[in-house]
Write a structure and sequence with these properties.
The chain has 3 helices and 4 strands. Helix content is about 35%, strand content about 10%.
Amino acid sequence: MKLICPICNDSLEGEGENELSLNLQEHFATRHGYTGMCDLRGGTGANACQASESGSLADLSYGERRIWEGHGLERPVQPGEDVMESVRCPLCGTVVFGHAFDDLSYNLAKHLNYEHEVKVSVLGKG
């Protein structure tokens, strides 16, 4: 999976929601100096994030996750079908969805802008 940082437009990658989310959070800390982020690793206390809506499937690679999700649904995912990708907000842990990396990047930028008042770069949506 791939994502563009909504602040600096650097490209980030990860196998599945969890890895991509942790890579994004590390990028926010090292490149942009964010320190008040939730604990995406499942910690407890003041900085604990809400549980991911993807549950244990979030640890699987993108392809494996699609297979498991496809078998759990009444209608299996067909080859080439447009499926949702997800990443967790590095600040609050909310799951953000998009159909492709540009949708996912735009939706994350929109979430950060509206929910956390983070100044984001314009990603050319529309």
